Amino acid sequence: MRLRALGRIRPKSVRAKIICLLMVPVISLMALWAQATVSTAREISDRGRLDEAATTLLEPVGHFVAAVQYERSATGRHAADPDAAHDKHLRSAQRLTDQASRALRDGINEGTTDSGDFGPELPFRIERLLRSVDGLPALRKRQDIGSYGGYTALVDAALAVDGALTQVRTVHAPPGASEARALHDLARAGELLAREDALFGAARAGGRMPRTAHEEFAGTVIARRELMRAALADLNPRDARAYRAVLSGDTSRALTAAEDAIRAAGPGRAPAATTATAWERSARTVLDGLHEAGVGALTRPAAEHDPYSFDELGGAGVAVVLGLFAVLLSLLISAGIGRSLVVELVGLRDEALDLARRELPSAMRTLHQGEDVDIDTLAPSRTPGEDEVSQIGAALVAVERAALRSSAQRAEVLARIADVYVSLARRSQVLLHRQLGLLDALERRVERPEDLEDLFRIDHLTTRMRRHAESLIILSGSTPGRGWRHPVPLLDVVRSAVAEVEDFARVETGEVPDVRVPGSVVADVVHLVAELVENAVSFSPPHTKVTVRADRVGSGVALEIEDRGLGMKQEALAEANRRIEDAARVDLLDSERLGLFVVNRLAHR
């Protein structure tokens, strides 16, 4: 249905096709322009939504992570040594976490961008983070060292939200922004440092560090340093300088020395490897510096970049305008040229249609009827011009003249061939009649069976030669001289036809009704049946039989010839029937189908 609908709207005329040809580049350019415009608008929209997400989601998530990390360290110290100072410190950390959680919820609720636009994972991770925040009061009630894992899971849920936006931030990052994956890795490195602070702070407050805690502390130090080293290499120069300023200062070096001392002291002496004041000052300072550097790397590029600047839109806009102007100009020029071309092509079309539908078929019919035609009058020669259209017109006239000359020559050759066929066939027929008479006399005088068998073979070959001679006469349009005055039984007609076949011994004659064939058509019926039987014998396996039978039907007698051949495909059978039915399709130069042409002539008598 769709293909038929497309076929109905397809341009038919030359004028319509030329107009469509001229409109294709314009439409193509407009489509490209629309695609570029939509792509630019989508890119601007994506960057705007990403900037909004950085303000309403990522920045509150970062502050929330820092607050939870601070509360986790305070909880560990309070659980190890629940004195008044640690209790005050914990209450203060919890208030900061509550403020950060409210700011996080406000940012999620106030954001106008659907979180599902950034991928299917982000809504799920935000929902999981909010459920973890809702479980914070129950986590605080534990007030033991085991709450470390709960706080760590809450931080991981918050960092998972940042990770869900990493790929989107990488694709739509403003020019000059650091890789989002590197910033996410640095946030993970900050979380590892916060875990170190929580582990060592609890050990320092309690005066002991279990072996498992010491092993985790040592592994966390190694992981943090490797993660920071790899991530710093992927930052842009400005963000890298901000991070290195934090990591290369005296405080960071003091932190590194303290970490090495704690690792080297072992579980028993780790709490005494450094003072609580020195550790807290260096760890908190580095943590705060990493947090500020991360927030700056996240928000600074979006704040400094203007997506509507001329550098972003000016070049593309000018290119689109100039492209449209060029297409309009070319359209005006092409319309003038196309109009003249349409006039010439329409005239050429009318001339070609008149040649194909009227002039050439009429001349062919005249030649087929044996009459002469004046080629110079029907198709006067034409001198080609310099343009292609006039050259095509001259070529059409040349083709017409060549076709007429070829048809005239072919008609002349066929007429001469027909005369030769008739002359040779008549002479052969006379000689073959005389030879059959001599053979009949010899057969009556010979008594030896061997000689008589040889004479029968010669008689059979002569009969076949007579049939081929009659085929020449039939193809030439004449009537064979052989005939009968009185009606002949159909059985004798069938036997005479079988006798003219080369491999007649394979043919069996079945039941034939007692009817008589008028003498005027006996020769044609014998010839026709012989051609069909010989075809059946030739195209069937040599060890099989061919059966000829006849039955009475309502309008006469039906003669059936049955063989065991492979048969013909439907296309070949239809083509053979067309050759028999259409008298105009007889081509005497096609020697491979002379049998069909003989049947054609006989069928049209």
From TrEMBL:
Catalyses which reaction(s) = ATP + protein L-histidine = ADP + protein N-phospho-L-histidine
Q: Does the keyword Kinase apply?
A: yes
Q: Which UniProt keywords apply?
A: Kinase, Phosphoprotein, Transferase
Q: Does the keyword Transferase apply?
A: yes
**GO cellular component entries:** plasma membrane
Which Enzyme Commission number(s) are listed? Answer: 2.7.13.3
Top-rank taxon, per record = Bacteria
Q: Which GO terms describe its molecular function?
A: protein histidine kinase activity
- Which InterPro entries did the record assign? HATPase_C_sf, HATPase_dom, Nitrate/nitrite_sensing, TCS_sensor_his_kinase
Boundaries of each Nitrate/nitrite sensing protein domain copy?
65-293
Which terms under GO biological process does the entry name?
phosphorelay signal transduction system
Indicate the segments forming the Histidine kinase/HSP90-like ATPase domain, all copies.
524-603
Please state what class of enzyme this protein is.
transferase
Pfam families annotated for this entry?
Answer: HATPase_c, NIT
Write the protein's name: histidine kinase
